[in-house]
Known about the structure:
35% of the residues lie in helices and 23% in strands. The chain has 839 residues and is an alpha/beta fold.
Amino acid sequence: METLFGDQLEQSVASSGSFADIILPVPIPKMFTYKIPRSLKEEIGIGYRVIVQFGKKKILTGIVGKVHQKPPTAYDAKPILDVLESHASVNPVQIRFWAWMAQYYCCHIGEVMNAALPSGLKLSSESKIQLNPTFDPDTCAYPLDEREEVLLKALQKKEEMSFEDCESVLGIKSIHGIIKSLVIKEAVVVFEQVKEKYSPKVENRIRLTSNFVEDKSSLEKLFHEISTKPKQEEILLKYLQEVPVYRQAGLNKNGLEKKVLTDAGMSTSSLKTLIKNGVLEEFKIIVSRFEDEAGSDSPIVLTHKQLEAQVKIKEAFEKKHTVLLHGITGSGKTELYITLIQEALQGGSQVLMLLPEIALTTHMVSRLRQVFGSSMGVYHSKYSDNERVEVWNGLLSGKFSFVVGVRSSIFLPFDSLGLLIVDEEHESSYKQYDPAPRFHARDAAIMLAWLHQAKTLLGSATPSFESFYNARTDKYGYASLDKRYGEAQLPEFHLADMLIDKKKNLLKLDFTRLMREKIQEALVNQEQVLIFQNRRGYAPYVSCEDCGWIPECEHCDVSLTYHQFGEEMRCHYCGFREKVPHVCPGCGSSKISAVGVGTERIEESLSLLFPEARIARMDLDTTRSKYGYQRLLDDFGAGNVDILVGTQMITKGLDFDRVTVVGVMDADRILYFPDFRAGERAFQQITQVAGRAGRRGKKGHVVIQSRRPEQAIFHQIISGDYRNFYLQEMGERQRFFYPPFVKMIKVSTRHKDYKTAERAARHLHNLMAEIQVKKILLGPEKGLIGKIKNQYIFESVVKLDRSSHAQAHFKQELQQQLEALQAEKDFRSVRFIVDVDPY
DNA sequence: AGCACGCCGACT
DNA sequence: GTCGGCGTGCTC
């Protein structure tokens, strides 16, 4: 009976039309069902980009996730307005990948879509107004004021106007009221115009009209005719010189860039005349934003060690999907990557290589460019949106089969990935923090590889403990490169005790005697120095010397960061800024001074200690512009800088032979960070920066300043004993239940009211405690930063059993609990943020 | 997330 | 009296 009824239902539905579940870029945990109009029925499939109306006003780009015959019961589905392309923009593997990501990282598929599509592929709609055709100013029941009259006049000429047009016509900013009143008076109507944001780059070109190409004698005749007009003759000669049509008639088809002629100082008016007389014609073509470059085919010759590693990797790939390549700095991982990429490409597969953002502008990319030329796409966060869309489309069209890119390039539309490489796999910048999806690109890459049945190679000089653990437990394959390239030697390490120097009065402006001596030596020998301090700005904060008062942000629970520029204090969380007061508001003292050390301050100290040295600084503040980073690198490479002070950034990709001294200003700052990964991170960062010292021939020196130089970690770093360090730290992690022995999930609760935030967090905590999974639950505690942007934060940490079953179960339950909590009216405005594998 | 609907304070 | 504050509810 039931089946029969079901069948009948199916049938009646099938005749009533098809439906599509559409992924929309909104943070709502579901897809939305729309009707497929009969006219679009043949043109729609999974992964197609469509336009739909969402809510009363919004027009959105959506991606078809599913096509079916089941009409929604509770509501009437709206129709799909249009299909944007005749092909799927997003392939089925991508959709599965999105779905996995939403599930694994506890976020909504719309949020994944938002992160995945370059904004150039998302539509924007613009509100425009137009005259109401039924409107007659003479019979209008309402009087119109002056401005309204002006707008209506303008509209009669232009037919339609954007709000911005209205602003410029009236010369005022607040036009909303006027438009609203005109709408009420039924004089105009407002409508939404949908726009594609991506615009291809168009080039103006010039070519001979066809009659001069087909018939050679006509060209001779032409030259004869214009011999009295030298300007025109010059243009024609230039054209024929650039485009030798007489030798190869086909060349004329693509013509010559107009700019070539005008830039060469040819007369534009003569050019116009030639066009007018039908000799030349102007046309437009769509060109790539990326320059064409040929790759070199000079084969890469691997060293014996590299070959060994290569064989090992390939053997491991036979049995494992993922292989960890543990190669110390300067061991030639790049060459190894190149040969593997070439092989994969020759096998007809696509290749994706991930790099941390700061490494992407360097050496590695130019090296790859040399080999792969313009068949390699580069996907960088500093690229414009149009450029990103071109990489996206280049992949769809087959122009690129190899892409190097940052974290977000895992979302590009690959359809046949064969190999993924994650270089500097341990880098924490692979984890996206702030907007959901809070994913880790390395882990997501491994999943993506699985979906494509591709292989993943993780490379690092200092692997993350997670990856090393996976290699040791045989989940991943393992290969190592432990010999430096050429005759490069390991640097000599020096530990400098800051406390002892301070007692002996040898600590000058935060520099120990040893550090100063080594720098001096390098300067005398005309060698370069790198100074590493993991904090930008001048000094972390200011403080009153008399009463200890420290200024704090009004909206967040943090002290304000001091910036020397403008004598200002800023909040790094909400952007609040304030002038440094002249007198302490607590005690009236005027002794307010900067405390702590940032790169800016070190730069200043260095110029006092070494007045003759040329000093530069490299941090977020000096490299914000698109080429700022490259300029600094070039300057340093050219030897125009003696000492370079910097944050993390200097640990990447700098490959200069003349660096002989590397200084770590404050190793304790990294080591005593309140996080279980602090040790691992300190090891990685110090090892990485030390790797910059003394590459070819000359031995380098690394000076590490610390208040407790006797700690074991320093000796492990010095001897390069990653293994022992790992084993020791892992002992701790196992004892105290930290990853990789457990799966961590952090849940934050935010609300503007302290009590509500706390209550909601408690509530959630209790609900989580009831989920039947092996786990340890910590919290809820006030966040490390208790308040951000006037929102109080409480955090619970879940340490879960590692089994995927436990994880899936817990996440599913958690999602349900969260939905239920949000439905309670007390917690309606509370925000819950789930961060899986927080970093 | 946005955006509309709806109920209470300071302005013409 | 109204303009506008943001609490709350919904989006196929």
